[in-house]
Amino acid sequence: MSWDYNVTTKPCPCGKGLVKETYGSNDWNQTSYHREMLCQECLEKENKEKVLKEERYNIAIKKTEKAVSYFREKYFNEFKDRFAKANNKKTIWTIACELGAEYSSLSKFYNYFKSKDEYIENLISWSNLKKVIKNMGINDVVLNNLYEDAYIHKKPFDDEFNDRAYRNAKGK
To answer: How far is Cα 101 from Cα 94, in angstroms, rounded to an integer?
Structure first.
């Protein structure tokens, strides 16, 4: 198995320097990509943008955590009460699916299920919060505002992640 590399250079965004791109591939259709900014001005600009993006990401994460913690403080007991009459694993899984908090199959659930309380504690997360709010019929203005604010901050990062995953799956 050997790697083949193609190195290209193109002008940087400011036009004063170059960007060096290295594309690699091997016999097993694995690929690699490396980009090196050779222009000092553009490199500094990219580094500043990277720091700002990281700060925006941290703010988005804090906002999502705030929305989830507000839900836990105000509505978690009501959420937990919905599982009170569940006496077997399948019933617990069914209730969690109806609430929009469980995505895995029943067989996978059986493999990872430890205790009822531990499972319920770990069900609420940012990824399923909106479905749980909707399925529980919660109409809390504060919770909705916290969710929307966090969603606005987190959506660009989710979109970027999904776009990158799509391009990676397509081999681009």
So the answer is: 10
